[in-house]
Amino acid sequence: MKIILSLFFTAFFLISLAQKEVPETSRSINNSQAVFETDQQLLKKFQDMKFGMFVHWGPVSLKGTEIGWSRGNQVSIEEYDNLYKQFNPTKFNADEWIKTLKDAGMKYIVFTTRHHDGFSMWPTEYSDYSIAATPYKKDILMELKKACDKYGIMFGTYYSICDWKNLDYPLGSPGGRTKKETGNMEKFIPFIKGQTKELIEKYNTKILWFDGEWEAPWTHEMGLDFYQYLKGLNQHILINNRVDKGRKGMEGITISKEFAGDYATPEQRVGTYNVDAPWESCITICKQWAWKPNDKMKSLEECLFTLLKTVGGGGNLLLNVGPMPDGRIEPRQVERLKEMGNWLKKYGEAIYRTVGGPYKPNEWLASTRKENNIYLFLMDFKKSEVRIPFPSDVKIENCKILGGEKLVFKQTGELLQFELPAKQNELVTTIEINIDGSAEDIETINLN
Ligand code: H79
Questions:
Q1: Can you give the residue range of the structural domain that contains 219?
Q2: Given the CA of residue 211, which atom of ligand 1 is nearest to it?
Q3: Nearest CA owner, ligand 1 atom 21
């Protein structure tokens, strides 16, 4: 019996070796000479873009429930894991998506290549549970990548570290609350390294947006090692802070030297003002990440104010859409995005390539600055007179409605006052203040 068993295990071992060769994984942090740092030029380019599209998509859109989280919850595991057999988004058109994105004034995309449910949205050599096994078959990811190149859009990929389906990953559905006997991180890590290598080398992804790092099987050491491995493949990519364990909850705007990650990722909220370290808020246009029929959609006002408060606070906004099972982005969402784009066409000079502040955003005011200009965004502002603190040692040369009329202003001590023209029929009144000197040198100003 013992002999039979050992023969069986040897055979099993040989078979697993014969499977896809996995990339070298043993680069240890402790004795590694290589310490890879953020590509500052790329980071600057990223921060200048301000506005991107997050896309959460997969076979789960057929059910209209939440991606990953509904597995073993609203949808049984058995049903969830078989949805791919019906996933056939015949109306998917990468060109149309990227045109929609561009018309929205967005400059980059982050697309879910593999969420917590473990389904790969590209034909990967490391798993059979992928887009290649659907009736659709086609490489959605490559089509998106090509459309991004055509329209000058930065291409980025979301990738979940946790995988509640994969037997090598120790936790399972629902929501990582069950344990798998077969869990083995030493087998799992080569799998995620192999997959992300494909994203870097075959799809030339510029952003790796990790998630699912909060679960216990993933450690700080693994995060550091993974970050170094990826930067070793290509130093000119950005990796969010969820590659490591440094995120403190959903706020998490800090990045530190201790933890790996090029920028911070507050989720479903505008990050707290920080113009010294890079961050990006990811926020859904409706309520769910993945498509849900008749999901409550945010108003233009809400979308626009969210963008202004985010950019005014020093961050980027990654606004999420969940495409439908037929491959289209929902028309009402496309319409909302177009409205954002129309506003940005008019006022984009006060958004792109700016720095947040000097005012810490509040409910009615956000601000940005560039060279010798300060831009103020008055949101839902009902009064005709603006009175705000302003440094007395900074000389104002000019004050006007952006793209419009000049305003008469009064600067007394630490106070700036000006009257607004009678009729303000835009959601936002955008003011441009020219100063004598660099606006970026002004200290942060707190509003009451
Ligand atoms: O991919 C998106 C989410 O699935 C993932 N991160 C973003 C980018 C995410 N990770 N953690 N969370 C979301 C927070 C978890 C929130 C939950 Fe829920 C509350 C899980 C279950 C209840 C949100 C609401 C998800 C399902 C219902």
A1: 31-350
A2: 6
A3: 69
